[in-house]
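User: My advisor, Dr. K., asked me to get a structural model of this assembly before our group meeting. I'm new to this, so sorry if the format is off. These are the inputs:
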Amino acid sequence: MNNYITLSDIENLQELIDEALQLKNKNTAGVVGKGKTLGMLFFNPSLRTRLSTEKAAKLLGMEVMVMNADKDGWALEFEDGAVMDSNKAEHIKEAAAVLSQYCDIIAVRAFPDLKDKEKDEAELVLKSFQKYASVPVINLESATGHPLQALTDAITISELKTDKKPKVVLTWAPHPKALPQSVPNSFAEVMQRLNADFVIANPEGYNLNPSITKDVEVTHDQDEALKDADFVYVKNWSSYEQYGKALKTDTSWTLTGDKLKKTNNAKVMHCLPVRRNMVIADEVLDSENSVVIHQAGNRTFAAQAVLRRILEKK
Amino acid sequence: MNNYITLSDIENLQELIDEALQLKNKNTAGVVGKGKTLGMLFFNPSLRTRLSTEKAAKLLGMEVMVMNADKDGWALEFEDGAVMDSNKAEHIKEAAAVLSQYCDIIAVRAFPDLKDKEKDEAELVLKSFQKYASVPVINLESATGHPLQALTDAITISELKTDKKPKVVLTWAPHPKALPQSVPNSFAEVMQRLNADFVIANPEGYNLNPSITKDVEVTHDQDEALKDADFVYVKNWSSYEQYGKALKTDTSWTLTGDKLKKTNNAKVMHCLPVRRNMVIADEVLDSENSVVIHQAGNRTFAAQAVLRRILEKK
Amino acid sequence: MNNYITLSDIENLQELIDEALQLKNKNTAGVVGKGKTLGMLFFNPSLRTRLSTEKAAKLLGMEVMVMNADKDGWALEFEDGAVMDSNKAEHIKEAAAVLSQYCDIIAVRAFPDLKDKEKDEAELVLKSFQKYASVPVINLESATGHPLQALTDAITISELKTDKKPKVVLTWAPHPKALPQSVPNSFAEVMQRLNADFVIANPEGYNLNPSITKDVEVTHDQDEALKDADFVYVKNWSSYEQYGKALKTDTSWTLTGDKLKKTNNAKVMHCLPVRRNMVIADEVLDSENSVVIHQAGNRTFAAQAVLRRILEKK
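Assistant: The format is fine. Below is the predicted structure of the whole assembly, which you can bring to the meeting.
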């Protein structure tokens, strides 16, 4: 693996899932990362992604250096040919090239503004690092994708499924703020590569980018979608059609205990952090059906599998 | 040891002090922490506690991950059943459970608001982590206690005493701001478990929580208390009776060279940082009597002894 | 080496350069730092210096603890005898002494205010740490010098020169903000110790401190200076004469492709970050002549050589 920018950087998904589960089961400190440094660069805050990736790198023997570009006020210029006479102190060309001198892998988090669809889809920050870095780049959640989360989700479903071809439902749920589509985008992508009966349920106006969902069944009837589900992945996202807008914030789509009863005693997933009683009700999160903590635990092994692949250049 | 939340988590104090002093004297890098991760979570800033605990963990071979909850704007919900539709992005239930996936020990610092005695005494942040984490929890100073500091203080007195039963005076001193009672509370507790002639001197209105000081002699006459003292522990705290108030800021209780002369050439202690010429006068801090730097150095060994006990589950 | 405060702490410059280049070529993880801790204390932000020094320390086997004094609001009192009744929570006497308990080497960054020449030249922060710390101190860029950068620059010129005595030009260039003189000061110092034909070119009013530049040729004619140059070091600085002022911000001194043609196909250096098309034009930075990324890469080995010398006390 040369980079991990999108899920398409994974050639054989099941093989990588199996590797992650092996890492989970032995969980021994590795040596492949000895003497190597991971640089983690945050243009937006992070908790789970930072800790799990940091832990994964250290389990492989790597050193980790963290830069909070958002807090350290390190304003970068991305435009070619700019006369840098304002507040931007460094051009991405130097920034990426210099970090490549100190780090063996660079991992970058950069959220969308949710104001300009074309700009967000251009993935300027991530793509610029990929273009100007001389070392591999990992996506720690970008404007339109979160492939480390999606790999974690695929690992979790592979690990917990009891049916060869489980029914997996990705359902929209309400949230007080307008959130990116990166997590549902990457989940929709990864589900198209797993052996699953995959359905997306969301209110009208909330259809995801059709070039990502492709032939996946999309319904506006949550109850119908939940019927017989083996896994329910709950997640809020802002509208793609009315780009970046939060059109609906009432709790009629909150995953409650009553709705869960329609499923095949489904396992409930969420990438966390989760707003209790907005996105998912207490009675669901506190039940045996919730696997959200287990899922968060798998973040480490997803990151470890990706880092090891990149370090081993295979 | 399962947790280190209060001093009562130490069964045999002298044994733990001896272990810390052994660690100090050999100070060899350990292996008991190899492959283990300490997560340090700060709801309030920290310098000494962070550095000494980080150093202690690394001396034991652990990896350390630091999260500044105060700066990273990670607003947690602590209320059961809350509908999370405001600014709090994650419930303590998930936060503690997820951190337990990435860390083998979680250490938490959370100061009091000093506005509502009952609320502070409930120790909501620390107790919630203890309740919802599935790994051991260490108190890095909470609303009402600072047991790592108290253990350091006991180690320092054990190490430096020349008398089997030294006279130890905890004396209040002025400070421009209203400070928590956590350090004097824990010092008063630990002194009741050491073989010492222990006296607390503070102005009227500054008596500590009587359920903590119990039968300890409390006097409002600083000069009388200092007489023949072998150790003088100087510390400001805000009023417990008129909760959280700073009633007195004149310098009549500042520990000066003249006052020190009343003692038995006492060793002067303070947890640091110390306001010079407010809490303690220059001529005392710059004299041979001051052991505050030596005391700060012992923080590492107190933390190391506690971490090792928890890692060894004994 | 006992400290690395100024370039004069280097006794034999060429020997240290050679050591750094050896470290670069083998780049093996060291053991001399095992069990030792580097404390890095930032009163001003840092990216390159932090990462390269952190990496250097870890390559030597050291642990690294970072404190952002600027962000953590750790306001220190530096005045002797101060009554600390305001917002300054700790005196440098305790701060430096306590850090010396937790760290084997302390590295400090503290920029000038550029308002009061005498105050900046007193180097209060750096000198106070040197005075009160009981462990070696490293300068990570102070009010008037940046000796780690200068060592890097000397390493880079030694490594890349094809002529025994190359012509090296330090040329001022425009910048929208008033910057410190620390980098050009240290570069001027180190060049006086290398075998080079060294010239400084700057506009009138921008002469550096004459007690640093001494007998170095200073010209106000950039074109004349660039003629036949083998190395061109481009850097902005604020006026020393009209202390801290930015007198000139037009782009007539920007290093362009046309100006580069006057040189002997010179290698172009800059300490980074660089404002493109203000300080150096795109066509120069994107050409084969630019060695700025290579130069940034050498920061690690300069830091490693200095740290190793200090650790080995030789």
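One thing worth pointing out at the meeting: The radius of gyration of chain B is 20 Å.

User: Perfect, thanks a lot.
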